[in-house]
Amino acid sequence: MGKAARRSRHKRQKYLGSLARNNPAEFASEWAKRLESWSVEASRRANRLGDRKKPVPPAFALVDHAMNELAACGVEAIKLEREATKEILTDACCRAVADAAYRRLYRLSNAKSNQHKMEMGTHKPPR
User: Fold this and answer.
1) Is residue 95 part of a domain?
2) Best label site of 23, 50, 65, 121, fewest CB within 10 Å?
3) What is the spatial distance between Cα 83 and Cα 81, in angstroms, rounded to a whole number?
4) How many domains does the chain have?
C-alpha cells in the first residue's frame, strides 16, 4: 500500500470514528455502504475460485478485514456495529461461496435461519 493510500485510509478511519462518537445514525449509514461493497467483493472473489491462473484472496478474509477496519474506527464504532458487521458479512460470504459451488447449498443448510429472517423482515430472497 502506498503512502497516499495509507493517508487516505487513516483519514477515512478518523472520519468514521468521529461519526460514531458524534452522529451514530450517520455512521450507521456510512458503514452500511461499506458492508454492501464488501458483500459484492465477496461475490466477486467466490466467483473466481475456480480460476487457477490468478490467486484469489479468500472470500472470508473480508470479514476479518471489515472487523479490523471497524476496530480502527474506535470503541464507539465497535459497540454500534460489531455484531451486525460480523453477521452480515459472514452471511454474504457463505451465500457467495455456496452460489459458486452449488446454488442451492446455502438455502438447504440455512433454511431455519432464513425462515426466521423472513418473519422478521430482514431476509434478502435468493437471486
Assistant:
1) yes
2) 121
3) 6
4) 1
pTM, two decimal places: 0.73
Q: How far apart are CA 24 and CA 21, in angstroms?
A: 7
Q: Which residues of 49-78 are buried (b: 16+ CB within 10 A; e: fewer)?
A: eeeeeeeeeebbebbeebbebbebbbebbb
Q: By residue range, what is the domain housing residue 92?
A: 3-120
Pairwise CA distance, residues 35 & 81, whole Å: 11
58: left (phi over 0), alpha (psi -120 to 50) or beta: beta
Q: What is the full per-residue pLDDT of the chain (127 aa) written as tens digits?
A: 788 989 998 898 899 899 899 999 999 999 999 999 999 998 888 888 777 777 777 878 899 999 999 999 999 999 999 999 999 999 888 888 888 777 666 665 566 666 666 676 655 555 5
Cα-based angle 77, 72, 40 (whole degrees, multiple of 5): 80
